Amino acid sequence: MATFFGEVVVAPSRAGLDEEEEAREETPEDREIRREIEKKRYRQRGEIKEREIQVLWSCAEESLVCSRFIVAIGRNAAAFLSSFILDSVCWEVIGVVKLWNEWCKTSSTTNVLATDSFCLFYRLISDPTVLLCQCSCYVAEDQQFQWLEKVFGSMQKKGLQVTILSTCPVADYKTQESTLTLVSPFLRALKTKEFQEQVCCPLLEQPNIVRDLPAA
């Protein structure tokens, strides 16, 4: 590098500095700062909360026998279950998910209101192999795999059929018809080529735009 007076000097290598910084060991002060950052992230009202998800079952079986599992994700889908499926007396609550994150907090109680954040499991009394999951709470990204692992880890997955109920705002459903003419409840389905059984509602019309679905 040439200076103003024509003197040639060697410019310091940034690569060497980066290597030295990477090689520098973490000091006790660095560890303390990192711990404080982690605590601040999970602190609410002065208490440290655990982000571990707990799945509590009222039944004694170690592995639930399940042939059909219907999962309603989001408040609209959970409200759909309450209005059209769970309004009868043929379902019983068998489990609950207890979790906490920045956006919601659920408890182990099964006596919930429609405005509460909750995740409950129901079993069909006439056919105990049919289960429902009504999930109105927000599951954080770093909790989603844990939720999936713990919920499905309690079930026998051989021959299991899983149905995901999502909502129109999530699916971004497009149609030329007026929404005022759509029959309630309005349902459309997506399925893979491998799924050969009869679906419970018409398939999604083509062409259409579907994005941000919770399951691929």
TrEMBL record:
GO biological process annotation, one example: proteasome core complex assembly
Gene responsible for this protein: Psmg1
Upper classification of the organism: Eukaryota, Metazoa, Chordata, Craniata, Vertebrata
Record keywords, A-Z: Chaperone
A single Gene Ontology CC term: endoplasmic reticulum
Protein name listed in UniProt: Proteasome assembly chaperone 1
GO function terms (MF aspect): proteasome binding
Source taxon at top rank: Eukaryota
Family to which this protein belongs: Belongs to the PSMG1 family.
Cited PANTHER family: PROTEASOME ASSEMBLY CHAPERONE 1 (PTHR15069)
Listed InterPro entries: Proteasome_assmbl_chp_1 (IPR016565)
Source species: Cardinalis cardinalis
